Amino acid sequence: MTQPVTPTANSAVADPTLPQQGPVPVASAAPMPGLFVSLEGVDGVGKSTQAQRLQAYLQSRGMRVHLTREPGGTELGVIVRGLLLHGVTRDDGTPASDISPRTEALLYAADRAQHVAQVVRPALAAGDAVICDRYIDSSLAYQAGGRELTADDVLHLSEWATGGLWPARTYLLDMDYQESSRRLTGEADRLESAGAAFFERTRQAFLDLAQRFPERIKVIDASASVDEVWAAIKTDVDALLDAGAQNAGQSGSRAVESAPASAEGGA
Ligand code: TYD
Question: Is the pLDDT at 4 greater than 70, yes or no?
Answer without folding.
Answer: no
